[in-house]
Specification:
alpha/beta; TIM Barrel; eight-stranded parallel beta sheet; 9 helices
Length: 266
Amino acid sequence: MTRHFAPRPSPCLIDSHCHLDAPEFTGWRDQLVAAAQASGVGQLILPAIHSDSFADSLAMRERYGCWLAFGLHPIYLSRHLDEHLHTLEQYLQQHAPVAVGEIGLDFYVPGLDAARQEALLVEQLKLARKYDLPVLLHVRRAQDRVLKYLRQIPVRGGIAHAFNGSRQQADAFIQLGFKLGFGGAMTYSGSRRIRELAATLPLSALVLETDAPDIRPEWAQQQPNTPANLNQFAIVMAELRKMDLNELKQALWRNTYQVIGLATPA
């Protein structure tokens, strides 16, 4: 029988961004979840990426007890129709997600219409504001433009996922109530800017993530990333910050609960 993720009374690791429904995990998802739990992961957030994935996300929650977010990801722009915003709103109303996401802008992938991405982001930020939900943001090479829209349409904070911006941009997200997600990219010795941010940003602004199956760590570049890597990511962050690992885990646990607006288990 599959064991559900469930709130724990003491701090545990939370993967703040994991695509558990990804096709790469088909056939061994139960083992993946069991390995994550055995490594100390007590919960994960699964962000949906297009309307066809919403029902799959619900199935993942039913089977594993993970937290959900619903959103229309900018990379899948060609799949999104105007009516999918209505579908998204229905899921936000009816299925108790912890956030709206994954949403945002991607100015790295060629061929994605910037104006249409921005229009889609605006409408999803309006939904997040309407339903008082935080947002899980995709901000690849688009930090300043995303910040522009967050100032125009204030929301209840959220997470800037896989953050890879400047310190000035990081501070701007933090001032708007956001946490910054760090994961596999932080494990590469050549990722100097990311490692410097992970080491020096306020601890209260950080969360851990895998973005599984993507953003593979340095030690597993030929394999899908999995939430079982999260404990090693915490070790890397603790070393970068020169702090006690258990104290770091407790802070990250508290930060993740705070950003999604849930009380930590007593």
